[in-house]
Predict the structure of Helix-turn-helix domain-containing protein.
Amino acid sequence: MTKPVAREPQRRNARSNRARILATARRELGRNPDTTLEELARAAGVVRRTLFGHFPGRAALLEALAEEASEVLRGAMAHAAEAAEPADRALARFTLLMWPVGDRYRMLLALARHDLGVERVAEILAPARAEVTAILERGRRDGVFPAHLPPAVLSAGLEAMVVALLEQVNTGALEDDGTRAAAAILIAAGVPEPSARTVVESVAPAVLARPLPVE
């Protein structure tokens, strides 16, 4: 009686191929959102049939990237809150934690509306939006942030600023490890510039030393 063929190496190889395709898609779509699946297959070092075996079309590939981004976002958010931390430090910490997530998946910003749809993007970002709004509400109650705008409205404005800064990274106009963005967000939230820079400098070392939770 013949022994069954071991399938674990095949499964490992399939997982490796899938991860390589996704990593290649993040890189190549970030450079050129119009990159074709055939070009992605060549860049990933796999044949066209292998890529289509994992992702039968562009929509399936982008949805996989969106789900990956959602998982990374949730993992990063697990480290966002610290007990009794002042709201300005909490907002700086949150921005620094989210910056590498946005940097890794910034190509989704260019593809989101057309390929994923506004509803899917809103679903991915909902936890982050809720967290920022809660920080702003707490900061306003504590007198850390001025009450010049409703927290939800200010949160939307700060999100738009982060997107704009990431787009500048995309064009090569800006290089940032997140510290410049975090200071800009605090200033936009109403923190004086010297205080904003001091807060970011105190929070950044520990946050920047933390790797993204999912590769």
